[in-house]
Amino acid sequence: MSTTRKHTALPKAQILIEALPWLTRHQGKTVVIKFGGNAMVDEELKSAFAQDVVFLHHAGLKPVVVHGGGPQISKALDRHGIVSEFKAGLRVTTEDAMDVVRMVLAGQVQRELVGLLNQHGPLAIGLTGEDAHTMTATKHQPRVDGELVDIGRVGEITEIDTGAIEALLADGRIPVVSSIARSQDDGHVYNVNADTAAAALAAALDAETLMVLTDVEGLYEDWPNSDEVISKLTATELEKLLPELASGMVPKMEGCLHAVRNGVHTARVIDGRVPHSILLEIFTDEGIGTMVVPDADPEGEAA
Ligand SMILES: Nc1ncnc2c1ncn2[C@@H]1O[C@H](COP(=O)(O)OP(=O)(O)O)[C@@H](O)[C@H]1O
Ligand SMILES: CC(=O)N[C@@H](CCC(=O)OP(=O)(O)O)C(=O)O
């Protein structure tokens, strides 16, 4: 035989092998991925997101996508002459505004993500929390300066039925969920913050990981004065920080806390502006954002 041939693709094999421990660890595990409206600004990023989710699916994980669409809703409301107002980080949602919210989330943003994922095969199925009683809510009245405020059709999740999502996962599909909930009597629907919905679903599904993609690097220690990202913190450490956090981060970090306090192993806030941030986070040990772990973290760094 002649001398050994030079295989120029060998570094690729090295990269695949480096992912082996992570592939083994995450095999069969459910990962809830929240794709924020602010991270959905760029066509290339959206395609890379879809590729990552499909990659996870083919690597044996069970991804569930929950999407936001705040900026897209604000734009549509503006076109309808409705002014966007937020209280306690949540959109004040009149009945008219709710029609627009539902149209944008279920009819526009969700359809686009389903389309991008399905470019890779017959994988994604879109639903909202209304479908098969996936999410039931009651009217949410947050406190602002100690006073209860009425913010219209904004819901607080009271019940989750994971049946439809689990059936889709068992059938090898990728559920794409819009954050709209039904009311107990099916009389109307509620607008639910997408971070809150993703966290509640992650807990109800017994997911291994909740991953929240947004438009910052992670949780900044002293926002907006410094860009020092907190790379890892426990539930109790996060709980202490919560009162200091500002609007957009509040539902995200409250969601992460809820998730890890209810069985999810890790909740991560990562930068959706970095292409393939999901793969970097799942398959390398260079976590790129903020990771929240339960207080007793038996697996330590391996989480
Ligand atoms: N401590 C913090 N660390 C990082 N971002 C913060 C912090 N506090 C507030 N923010 C704001 O939260 C925003 C993310 O939330 P949001 O706008 O709701 O994004 P998304 O559409 O991804 O849900 C950031 O762009 C930033 O302006
Ligand atoms: C009650 C409430 O505020 N609902 C959000 C739902 C969409 C969302 O959460 O989108 P992002 O993740 O892109 O912020 C809203 O109407 O904007």
Automatic annotation (TrEMBL):
Gene3D superfamilies: Acetylglutamate kinase-like. GO terms for biological process: L-arginine biosynthetic process via ornithine. The record marks K34, K252 as: Transition state stabilizer. It comes from the Bacteria. Coiled coil: none annotated. GO terms for cellular component: cytoplasm. Pathway: Amino-acid biosynthesis; L-arginine biosynthesis; N(2)-acetyl-L-ornithine from L-glutamate: step 2/4. GO terms for molecular function: acetylglutamate kinase activity; ATP binding. Keywords: Amino-acid biosynthesis, Arginine biosynthesis, ATP-binding, Cytoplasm, Kinase, Nucleotide-binding, Transferase. It catalyses: N-acetyl-L-glutamate + ATP = N-acetyl-L-glutamyl 5-phosphate + ADP. Its EC number is 2.7.2.8. It is found in: Cytoplasm. It is an enzyme of class 2 (transferase). Residues 29-271 form the Aspartate/glutamate/uridylate kinase domain. Substrate binds at G69, G70, R91, N191. Belongs to the acetylglutamate kinase family. ArgB subfamily. Catalyzes the ATP-dependent phosphorylation of N-acetyl-L-glutamate. HAMAP family: ArgB. This is Acetylglutamate kinase.
